[in-house]
Amino acid sequence: MEATSTPFADWVTTTGRGLGYQTDAQLAAAIGVQQSTVTRWRSGSQPSIKHLVSLAEVFGMKISPLLAMSGHVPPELLNEAEAPTPPVTETVRRIQESPLSERQKAHLFDYWSRRLADERERLWQIMELIEEAEGTDKRTVGDRLQQALLTLTHSNITSHVVTLLSNLFALEASPRRRSAGKGRLGQTVKG
């Protein structure tokens, strides 16, 4: 029997990993269920309401979005404030928990969003190349894929890294500019 992915299964997998539960066993232990229970959820089985209560507690969220995502309650019964939140990925969690300033975190989130958009675009291009390549020479397809990947990777990543660094260094440089012309202990430097 083939596993069927559901919005709940996708959400619990991504959010669980984002919160540091890398395996079904780790998540199951945190929730207090058998590993096979979590594995069944990821295969498309509907969790019990009792298990959703435990999951909501472990993830630090309200139960109503989980009830809707898992199919216990029609989503239209929820108001917008109760709508399911996007899954938290490990990268997002690490940025959120970092000791950086909110402005620095915002720039990192922007950088990460741009990188993800680029990766989606790259994936779609790869899919198109593979679809177009049906019945053609595999070496030609490989060459075209390699060229597409190299072109996209170098230009986009470099652009995003330069933007990120310039934003972060601009933030760091701002206080120094305000104190330009000052020596130690705020004394004016005569030039």
- Residue share in helices? 55-70%
Q: Low-confidence spans: pLDDT under 50, at least 5 residues? A: 176-191
Q: State the end-to-end CA separation.
A: 80 Å
Broad CATH class of the largest domain: Mainly Alpha
Cα-atom radius of gyration: 24 Å
For the largest beta-sheet, the strand count, sense and barrel status come to:
none
DSSP helix count? 8
Give the name of the CATH architecture of the largest domain. Answer: Orthogonal Bundle
Number of strands: 0
Per CATH, what is the topology of the largest domain? 434 Repressor (Amino-terminal Domain)
Structural class: mainly alpha
- What characteristic shape results from the CA principal axes? globular
Number of domain modules: 2
Q: N-to-C SSE series?
A: HHHHHHHH
How much beta, percentage-wise? Answer: under 5%
- Round the mean pLDDT to the nearest integer and report it: 75
